[in-house]
Design goal:
mainly beta, globular
Length: 120
């Protein structure tokens, strides 16, 4: 039921930075990002836990990407720095919603994805 809308994707050069944003139409809890690189399986990028703000990062994101939540409520951001062609992917916003909270599960809402292309 909750709709997630990503923004901020685009085409950049190696070494550039991008800031992805996600806005949810309803209440969300733990939120995060996945991505799918060409020819590869979907990959975990980052998450921020609702209960205490603890952050988690995938191996390829750690040290370069930073996830944060907006003060306004049901929003999150992913600041990506020092991008390389290996970061080229469709990035998906994900969120834990009421239904999944009640089940003790995580991400029950997914965005449509936003394309990030990094050229050399």
């Amino acid at each position: 039921q909750v709709e997630l809308v990503e923004s901020g994707g685009g085409s950049v050069q190696t070494g550039d930075s991008l800031r992805l944003s996600c806005v949810a139409s309803g209440r969300t809890f733990t939120m995060g990002w996945f991505r799918q690189r060409p020819g590869k399986d979907r990959e975990f990028v980052a998450a921020i836990r609702w209960s205490d703000g603890e952050t988690y990062y995938g191996d390829r994101a750690r040290g370069r990407f930073t996830i944060s939540r907006g003060d306004a409520g049901n929003t999150q951001n992913l600041q990506m720095t020092n991008l390389t062609p290996e970061d080229t992917a469709v990035y998906y916003c994900v969120a834990q919603v009421v239904e999944t909270v009640r089940r003790g599960e995580l991400f029950g809402a997914w965005g449509q994805g936003t394309q990030v292309t990094v050229s050399s």
